[in-house]
UniProtKB/TrEMBL annotation:
Family: Belongs to the cytochrome P450 family.
Keywords: Heme, Iron, Metal-binding, Oxidoreductase, Signal
Naturally occurring in which organism (per UniProt): Deinandra increscens subsp. villosa
Pfam families noted in UniProt: p450
Protein name: Cytochrome P450
InterPro entries with a match to the protein in the record: Cyt_P450, Cyt_P450_E_grp-I, Cyt_P450_sf
Keyword Metal-binding (UniProt): yes
Species classification: Eukaryota, Viridiplantae, Streptophyta, Embryophyta, Tracheophyta
Cofactor: heme
Binding-site residues, heme: C423
GO molecular-function term, one example from the UniProt record: monooxygenase activity
PANTHER family according to UniProt: CYTOCHROME P450
UniProt KW tRNA-binding keyword: no
């Protein structure tokens, strides 16, 4: 197992009494993911102690052993915790992302049915297939014929949003239609996520709580955005309740029906669940795919291999064919190593503890693991870690010539988290992304409009995005 870096490259950021690293945090407030990543990478044991004002400290780690300790070995010690819960409670309420203990176990158990093989097969062969063939590809065809510019990230968010609503709630918002309708909901959702996550940067939580109490500035905007989001989620819930009441037996197989028929009729609870699933399903796969198409354009030899893998399959891509596409799978893993959709994820300690790297953790302290930094550790990925090389995930059997995908251990690559709370939608996400890649690259080339050597910027608010989106032209593949 590779060992973390043993030497510090440069000194740690400067910390002052009372305010800790606040000056540097403030100066880097628009690139905190990148700044904390540098701090982790420059630390000898890949663990950095971020000192916040008023003596609050947060551990941030990129050390696989420590990540395993937090996410698995001491799972019950590291919870979401009160700070996380209160900071996000206006938006997420008691949804699965924001709870611990028995409540979390219940939601996880009911939700996990949604991700069994039968559901996933239905998802890829019907839901994703229809959204791809009836919406995404026609939008691309129009763009190719008329030489228009598209914001690929926006298109992919619409695509993912329609899909998650259809599979989880049996509801089609029709957000990716040729006219690309403005959706008040989507704007409100982005605002709500961004402002909620900005609360974490407040010098003390008291500040945003006072602002909320006075209903001023960003808190006023957050309140409006959250009520818009809740109204939309509640509409879905009420329509589903009506549908269930109208039917003598339950035919719907979606998650929402499952919650409603398990006796969960509390409107607030089910609405919270809907919001968490939209967050999980919309922004993660769309961000990953946006970076993927940019990286593939920048690496034509990878694109060639991908197209080769696609044309070897028949036109009709079902569940099994999609699963078999190992080169695309590897390319997506490689994309998310460099640009993880959840770049940093945070827990809180319920008791005092000592991490395997010797860091002392006090009860109540926040402890984050940093997939963005971990994808950049030379000792874990080799000297060529900067390169986009799907081959690092593949193994060729010299006798048979068969190429197989080799996963890294989930604590070295915690892009989907790891341990008992590992992402429930991992397989669903891969199936969806692979089906999109195969459907798009079989027919089209995706060409960024700004083709210079500048790397797009990753910005993060709970989940990451490409700053400003990705403007592309679509060309028919000859
Ligand atoms: C590339 C795509 C995705 C990535 C990288 C990803 C990553 C993650 C991560 C890091 C977490 C842990 C979050 C936390 O607890 O703080 C998580 C949890 C979760 N994800 Fe995903 N996710 C993806 C797609 C999806 C999709 C499509 C769904 C489908 C709805 C989904 C459903 C969930 C759920 C329900 C949880 C909560 C699990 C729990 O707390 O027990 N994810 N995901």
């Amino acid at each position: 197992k590779p060992k973390p870096k043993s030497k510090s490259k440069s000194k740690s950021p400067k910390s002052y009494p009372f305010i800790g690293h606040y000056f540097t945090i403030y100066a880097n407030r628009h690139r905190l993911t990148q700044w904390t990543s540098d701090a982790v990478l420059n630390s000898p044991n890949l663990t950095f102690l971020l000192r916040r004002p008023f003596g609050q400290s947060r551990v941030i780690t990129g050390n696989p052993e420590t990540v395993q300790h937090i996410l698995k070995t001491r799972f019950s010690t590291y919870e979401k915790g009160d700070t996380f819960r209160t900071t996000l409670s206006d938006l997420l309420g008691d949804g699965i992302f924001n709870i611990d203990g028995d409540e979390w176990k219940f939601q996880r158990r009911v939700s996990s049915h949604e991700f069994n093989t039968k559901s996933l097969r239905h998802f890829v062969e019907h839901v994703v297939d229809a959204e791809l063939n009836e919406r995404l590809l026609p939008v691309f065809t129009f763009s190719a014929e008329n030489n228009t510019v598209l914001d690929l990230q926006d298109i992919l968010q619409r695509f993912a949003f329609d899909n998650i609503c259809k599979i989880a709630f049996g509801y089609d918002p029709g957000y990716l239609t040729p006219s690309l309708p403005e959706a008040k909901f989507a704007v409100a959702f982005d605002d709500a996520v961004r402002i909620s996550s900005e609360r974490f940067r407040s010098i003390t939580p008291l500040l945003w709580k006072i602002k909320r109490f006075l209903n001023k500035g960003s808190e006023k905007r957050l309140k409006l955005a959250v009520s818009e989001v809740r109204e939309f989620a509640m509409k879905i819930v009420n329509e589903k309740k009506q549908e269930l009441a109208d039917k003598s037996s339950i035919q719907s197989v979606d998650l929402l029906s499952r919650f409603l028929s398990s006796g969960q009729l509390d409107e607030k609870f089910v609405t919270d669940m809907v919001i968490s699933f939209i967050l999980a399903g919309r922004d993660t796969t769309s961000a990953a795919l946006t970076w993927f198409f940019w990286l593939v354009f920048k690496n034509p030899e990878v694109e060639k291999e991908i197209v080769k893998e696609i044309v070897e399959k028949s036109d009709c891509l079902g569940f099994d064919e999609v699963k078999e596409m190992v080169y695309i799978h590897a390319s997506l893993c490689e994309t998310m190593r460099l640009y993880p959709p959840v770049p940093v994820d945070t827990k809180a300690a319920t008791t005092d503890d000592v991490l395997p790297d010797g860091t002392v953790v006090k009860k109540g302290m926040m402890v984050s693991y940093h997939p963005y930094a971990m994808g950049r550790v030379e000792k874990l990925w080799g000297e060529d870690w900067k390169e986009f090389r799907p081959e690092r995930w593949l193994e060729k059997d010299e006798k048979t010539g068969n190429v197989t995908f080799t996963a890294r251990d989930p604590y070295t690559y915690p892009v989907f988290q790891a341990g008992p709370r590992i992402c429930l939608g991992k397989d669903m996400a891969f199936l969806q992304m692979k089906r999109v890649v195969a459907g798009v690259l079989r027919r089209f080339k995706v060409v960024p409009v700004e083709d210079d050597d500048n790397e797009p910027v990753l910005v993060s608010a709970l989940t990451s995005k490409m700053k400003g989106g990705l403007r592309v032209k679509i060309k028919e593949r000859k």
